[in-house]
Hints:
Elements: H1 11-14, H2 23-42, H3 49-64, H4 70-75, E1 78-80, E2 86-88, E3 102-104, H5 109-121, H6 127-134, E4 138-140
Parallel strand pairs: 3-4
Antiparallel strand pairs: 1-2
Helix pairs in contact: 2-3, 5-6
Amino acid sequence: MTMTILESPNCEEVIDFTKTKRWEILLNHAINIQQAIVKFRKGNVDLEWSVLKKKAKIMLIRESQKRLTSNDIEEWDLQQDEDGIWKVSGRFELQMSTDKPIYLPCDHPIVTMLVLKAHRDCGHFGVAYTLSEFRKTYWIKKGRSQ
Length: 146
């Protein structure tokens, strides 16, 4: 009898980032993938929805950050957190009350989804307000021009 070892899937192979423009839908797909991974690896173990959601969000962000170059890491003084997510340090260390924003490459499809979600979440206000709310959590190069 042979046993198949399951590995974490490459997101790009499992999720088509161009099929939806809504972050919530993409996140739900990623949550379903996380549920499947847990069931295959650990049997019939149910994790809380909030844990699955956090794992799914980390999976999607890490997938988008695979496009980062060593130049990006050096230019933006990026540092990885305990989940392997690249965050901007630098001037943000001066503001102790501010969490370091997650750095996202501007050319990945989830950036558009997250900006549109921020736009909806802040009541369809203008570009400046949406970008300021977005940058509390995420940072993208050339954010204003995107």
